[in-house]
Amino acid sequence: MILFWYSVILFVTTLALNFYLLIGFKQIKQVSRQPLVDNLPPLAIIIAVRNEEEDLEKALQSVCHINYTNHRIIVVNDRSTDRTAEILQNFSLRYPQIRVTTITTLPDGWLGKNNALYQGYLSSTEQWMLFADADIVFHPDAINKAVGYAVKQQLDHLTMLPELISRSAILNSVFATLSIMLMTSMKPWEAKNPKSKASSGIGAFNLVRRTAYEKIGTHARIKLRPDDDLQLGQLIKKEGLRQDVLAGKGYVCLEWYKNLGELGRGVQKNSFAVAKYSLVQVIINVLNMLLTVALPMPLMFIFGNTAIRIMATVMLIFHMIYMEIVPPNKWWYAFMIPFSGFFLAWHFLKASVTTVVKGGIYWRESFYSLKMLKGEE
Q1: Distance, CA of 249 to CA of 197 (rounded, Å)
Q2: Which of 9, 91, 242, 340 is the most exposed place for a label (fewest CB within 10 A)?
């Protein structure tokens, strides 16, 4: 009886969620459909880099050839030990719009990336700033269209959902499930609604008006947050400033992680922070992932009666339809949802327990103590 009612609840929830997400995605405008604009405001593109030699050249090539005349590129080299400095020097000689700032030490009480972005802000004077990651590949018209949209809509903050490109089909299938979980939690299509608490902050593309950034207290207010991009969006929304999201398919692309191992390690940086450094909240989050993502279809197919298995089949079909409709997903990603749920739940739990045991996190060859992250020292 318990399995039956559990199945009924999940059946109804799954169908409703699929419709809800599809309707939500339809509300997010595509940057590709926005017009090109002349006479755009001054823009500083601020990119923090640390040991990025593998992806940096391709990313800089794209940002150096954008269709935007009134801009500067401020690249902040944060204590890199590989060929990053050499690559930046070569680019700065070829492209006069690039300015390189080098950081040799990390101030106390700061995470490396947050400090680097803040230093980029201090080096800028432009009316608008785009905080972007060092592995983003931009279409030449992407930034022009995005800034034009932000100005036309009188926004203070605009984010863009990047197109995730991966060489691993299995990794892409996990991304698809992770995307469903993130979209369900963040509801980015509601970020523009002043009556909604939903907000959006995306490290790949955070375009913010200078006055708005200063009003929320800059990165100095979130200097110890590993999830600085999400926090930036939340602070802007809490201040009552205008925010929106665009979809960047074909215009803002990145290879987020190259394999499942990298994704698992990446989860370590943000998962505990998202849970506000509470193991109780982590356990709640993990149980939620298991009960709503990983376990439903396996339990229903293996242990269910005919009625339950019919519900599971319908759920699977709806997942397949959703995956087929929402690019760049493939229909068969629906079969990977249980695996993805187990994978993410395990790494969320592992990352949080590891952080507690080690007393902090290692990220980009730097250690940040848990007391520091909590602001207790």
Answers
A1: 26
A2: 9
- Statement: residue 366 has pLDDT above 70: yes
Residue 377 predicted with pLDDT over 60: no
Q: CA-CA distance, 177 to 347, in Å (whole number)?
A: 14
At the topology level of CATH, where does 28-167+186-254 sit? Spore Coat Polysaccharide Biosynthesis Protein SpsA; Chain A (3.90.550)
Contact 317, 277 (CB under 8 A): no
Instruction: Write the secondary structure of the chain as one string of H (helix), E (strand) and C (coil).
Output: CHHHHHHHHHHHHHHHHHHHHHHHHHCCEEHHHCCCCCCCCCEEEEEEECCCCCCHHHHHHHHCCCCCCCEEEEEEEECCCCCHHHHHHHHHHHCCCEEEEEECCCCCCCCHHHHHHHHHHHCCCCCEEEEECCCEEECCCHHHHHHHHHHHCCCCEEEEECEECCCCHHHHHHHHHHHHHHHHHHCHHHCCCCCCCCCCCCCCCEEEEHHHHHHCCCHHHHCCCCCHHHHHHHHHHHCCCCEEEEECCCCEEECCCCCHHHHHHHHHHHHHHHCCCCHHHHHHHHHHHHHHHHCHHHHHHHHCCHHHHHHHHHHHHHHHHHHHHCCCCCHHHHHHHHHHHHHHHHHHHHHHHHHHHHCEEEECCEEEEHHHHCCCC
Q: Kindly report the pTM of this predicted structure.
A: 0.91
- pLDDT confidence bin for 372, thresholds 50/70/90: confident
Tens of pLDDT, residues 149-193? 999 999 999 999 999 888 888 999 999 999 999 899 899 999 999
pLDDT of residue 167: 80
**Partners of 211 in beta bridges:** none
Asked whether the predicted pLDDT for residue 373 surpasses 60, the reply is yes
Quick one: 253 exposed, middle or buried, by C-beta within 10 A (0-12, 13-18, 19+)?
buried
